[in-house]
Amino acid sequence: MSSSTEILVPEEFGEMAPYRGEQFIAALNRLVNDPGFEHAVRYVMPDVDYPEFVKSLLQVRDQNEFQTKVMGHFLEMLAASTTRGLSMDGEDNCEPGVSYTFISNHRDIVLDPSFLNLGFIRLGKPVTQVAIGNNLLIYEWIADLVKVNRSFIVKRDAKIVQALEAAKQLSAYIHFTISKLKESVWIAQREGRAKDSNDLTQESLIKMLALAGDEADIKERLMAINLMPVSISYEFDPNDYLKAREFLLKRRDPQFKKSQRDDLFSMETGLLSNKGRVHFRICKCINNELAQLESKDRSEIIRRTCNLIDRAIHCGYRIYPCNYIAYDEINDTDRFSGEYTDDDLNQFNEYIDRQLDRVEVDDVTPDERAYMRRMILTMYANPLTNQLAASECDRI
After folding, report:
1. In the 8-state DSSP scheme, what is residue 111?
2. What is the rounded end-to-end Cα distance, in angstroms, of the chain?
3. β strands within the chain, DSSP E
4. Are 142 and 136 in contact (CB under 8 A)?
5. CA 363 to CA 248: how far, in whole Å?
6. Containing H/E element for 78?
7. Residues 257-274: tens digit of each pLDDT
8. What is 4-18+86-235+276-318's CATH superfamily?
9. N or C end of the chain: which has fewer CB within 10 A?
10. pTM of the prediction?
């Protein structure tokens, strides 16, 4: 089989696919001359010698070099400065030479796939292509940056008729990438992050993945892309107070919608703020379990596929003291009091108070503050709640 660099990407995928070859080089040259990109680089790396950074960037020749040398270095710096350690296990579930569709819960707009790929870089394993919504491509330089960084674009703003065509195109591209390019992809289990950390796979996502493929049977089309759940556990979510703010504003006005500025600020906050410990667990590919499904009903297969992914992700969480504390408080119990100390309890309550103090909303009442506090506690309790509800975790 020829390597992926020798395979031409069909024209139908041109607008969505990552940059390669001459497109890659041209995009790098556009990036380094864009004031917005320069501002972003100086913002996240205040001590950078920008002319030297540009010089080194323009020496990069392809995606792999960009991801391993440029992004790998940046992500190591970010992990060192904003986490108490980034770890991964379950990588032995990845068979050498096999490409997978890594499907994970979604905590951070930027860092979920980036830290996953950093884990692979550390292990000397191939990195993945990354699905990213076009709603996040606020500026042209962001679109260039993500496509240089091996991301493919998911259309989020299409009308109903165009949405079906966009879904077919996205499905076809993922199948092409797995089967022809022999590259893995990452995609979140749902559109957007679960604000309350109740991670459930959207059936519409699985339906999309099953639209393409040469196989006649829906189960075989899903098995062809090697679905591999990934469980992501952040000890602290830097955006928890922003999510609590959104809950409050929607409580006040059910029609409230975030702005592009809100999305950009969430990206910045997630990148640069404390996340505590971060752990990725690579679960087993679900093909064996899919193969055992006897139902021929399409809806049943979609539902069971979602359940298999959810169970794997829920069982794969790494549970931290804050999760035990939040669970006990939400449920008015001391069931897990042995899993945390008085210091853990005090520090977590102080953390929540600090986060609530950061919420920028006018005239917050005591009742509304209590509501936001409960929503933050729910965010931290739900991973444990779901893990307790999941069964047969030893098989994941």
Report:
1. H
2. 32
3. 86-89, 101-104, 129-133, 151-154, 185-188, 227-234, 278-282
4. yes
5. 12
6. helix 72-82
7. 888 788 888 888 998 999
8. Glycerol-3-phosphate (1)-acyltransferase (3.40.1130.10)
9. N
10. 0.93
